[in-house]
Each structure stands twice: as C-alpha cells, then as structure tokens.
C-alpha cells in the first residue's frame, strides 16, 4: 500500500488494483451503512477485477435490485449468472447473483437429508415460516452461501474471487454472529425440551414434561406444537453440519485470503457508522483492507479560497445587485466550504484510525446504471 501523505492526518492510500490483482485474495466483503453506494462499489470492484483477469462472482445480500440493473441482467437469483459485455481479453470473467435465503435453506435440506426426510421438512409449516421470514435466517444463509461458493470455487476453479455486497446498516455484520447465534438456538432450553421425546427413553415423558407440553399445546395449539416438534427433531440432526460449516466460514473470513472494505460517504453519520465497522472488524480479528469514501465533492484546481470569493462577490454586488459573476463566486465559495468540510471529516477519521488505507471516489454527474458507469467508478477507485 502507498503511504503518501498530503496533510497531517491524511490516511494512507488504498491501492485498489494491488488488492484486486493479488491472487491470494479470494474474498472481498464490502460493508457499510445504507445509502453510501456500497452496492455500486461492490459491482465496480467486481467488474474491474474481472477485466484485469480475475474470475469473479459478486454476491449481493442487499434486497434491492440495483446490482442486476447496473450489470444489464434482467433479474438475479441464487445461481451465478454471466454478466454480458464484460471485456474478457485479460482472461477474466464476471458472474453475479443475489442471495435467495429460502432457496439456500432448501438446498441445505436437500443436500443433507434423505429425499423422504427432505420432503417432510420442506412441507413442514413451521419450516416454511422459518425459512421465509424468521429473524436471522438471512444472515445464516449468507454464511451458508458464501461457504458454498468458496468450496465450489476450490473444487471447479470457476471463480477465484468472490465479492460480497452486504445488507445496509449495521446488519451488514450480523452474519458474523450467525454461528454463535445458531449454536445458542440449537442448545436452548426450549429446543432441548421439544427434542426430549425424540432423543430420550420413555422415562423422559414425566409428569412434569407432560404438564409443560400441555401448557404449550394450549398456547400454540396441538397441531402447531407437533409441527414445531417434528421440525426441531429434523433440525437437530440436519443442522449440526450447518453449524460446523458456518464456523468454518467464520474462520475463512478471518483468514488472510479475505479482505474487508468499509464503504462510507463523507458525512458525519456515515463516517460514525464506518468507525463502528472498523472497531467491530478489529475486535473480531477480521482482515480490514481499507475504507472507501464515496461521492466526495471533486477538488477544485483554482486556488481561490471561500473567503476571497465571498469578498469579491460582495464588492461586485455593491456595484451591481444582479451581477452574474457575484452569483458564480458565491457558488464557488459554497463548494469550497463543502470540500473543506469533507476533508475535515476525513482527516478526523484518519486521526482516529491512522492505520486504515483510504480511497476517495468523487461524486458522479448522474446515477450509475450500466457497465460504463461501473468502469468509471472503478477507474476513480484506482486513481485515488
């Protein structure tokens, strides 16, 4: 990484191309709060890596459809789809996909259970509810899908780089907690209670147990309780393997072949969120590659300060209240102040985290909605 400094607290420069070209880097995870251009950054990095010779798959966990639109794909699903019009002259390729948590859950069931047992689980009403909307399911399945992609990449060589676009806000890192939370769920008292009839001998069906299940029947209804018990009994044998795989994926995220990028905009709230992500990744010993500051106001080539511009504008207005030049000078002063404010925010972040390399991406003139726009973002990332 380059460490050229232009101000007292300017961060070291993030060398994006060196990161993308490093063949030992197998996973790049982009995280950050909502509305900072994280999905666009992920897509731009994936495209640039592919056109520099990497075999890339970009996985979005964000439910928005912007990634598909920007890549010219009508719709993304749980299967990697080739992105058309990518320059493959360097030998690279680019696939894109969107996490379908229910489909991923179904795939785990189908892979780990016999056909008859899989059918029973897939048709279980409690499973249908859990796999579709249960809190935390998305994060569990994100870990599962990332692990699947990495294992498949090692097996068939179709991909050598996985770029992950995480959900907006702090939930972007919730998937890091998936193994621990799943273990807590499976080891919880209620789960053990519901599993008692399936695991133990008849003596477990004591008067106390019957009284508890009787109370649950009144609350849940007998049919629902049986559905839950049936599902939990299947889950006990089925998801021990999932728990182990999730823990392996967590270890993979801590390994040297993974790089986390925190994405932010040059705004106080977004940089506070970025600080949270940096602290969390550091605490979990995750390999942080750097910070991407998106949508910064481009610097001006003129040396005219805001104060000088305002003074000149005031002089012109005293002579002509409708002076166009005075209005332009005022606009110049406003822009200089925005640039200074953004620089101050970045310097303050760099003072707190001097070890975090940073790339600054100027704001684009319009929305990014195609590969040309993504290439422009990638060029800006590399020119930092």
Please explain how this structure is put together.
- The chain has a single domain (16-298, 333-383), classed as 3-Layer(aba) Sandwich (Rossmann fold).
- Helix content is 56%, strand content 12%.
- The protein is built from 15 helices and eight strands.
- The protein starts with 15 loop residues before the first helix and ends with a helix.
- Residues 1-7 and 198-222 have low confidence and may be disordered.
Keywords:
single chain; about 375 residues; alpha/beta; Rossmann fold; eight-stranded mixed beta sheet; 8 strands; elongated; ArsA/GET3_ATPase-like; P-loop_NTPase; ArsA-related P-loop ATPase; ATPase_ArsA/GET3
Brief digest:
The protein is an alpha/beta fold.
Just give the CATH class.
Alpha Beta
Kindly give the count of domains. 1
Mean pLDDT: 80
Radius of gyration: 26 Å
- The CATH architecture can be given as 3-Layer(aba) Sandwich
- The fourth-level CATH homologous superfamily is P-loop containing nucleotide triphosphate hydrolases
Rough outline: elongated
Taken in chain order, the helices and strands follow as HEHEHEEHHHHEHHHHEHEHHEH
CATH topology: Rossmann fold
User: Describe the biggest sheet?
Assistant: 8 strands, mixed
- How would you write the strand order of the largest sheet? 3-4-2-5-1-6-7-8
Pfam families: ArsA_ATPase (PF02374)
InterPro entries: ArsA/GET3_ATPase-like, ATPase_ArsA/GET3, P-loop_NTPase
Domain ArsA/GET3 Anion-transporting ATPase-like: 26-299
Protein name: ArsA-related P-loop ATPase
SSE topology sketch:
Blueprint: H1 16-21, E1 27-31, H2 38-51, E2 55-60, H3 66-70, E3 81-82, E4 93-98, H4 101-112, H5 115-123, H6 125-133, H7 137-156, E5 161-165, H8 178-186, H9 189-199, H10 207-220, H11 222-254, E6 258-264, H12 268-283, E7 288-296, H13 306-319, H14 324-352, E8 358-362, H15 371-383
Parallel strand pairs: 1-5, 1-6, 2-4, 2-5, 6-7, 7-8
Antiparallel strand pairs: 3-4
Pfam family, one: ArsA_ATPase
Organism: Nocardioides renjunii
Protein name: ArsA-related P-loop ATPase
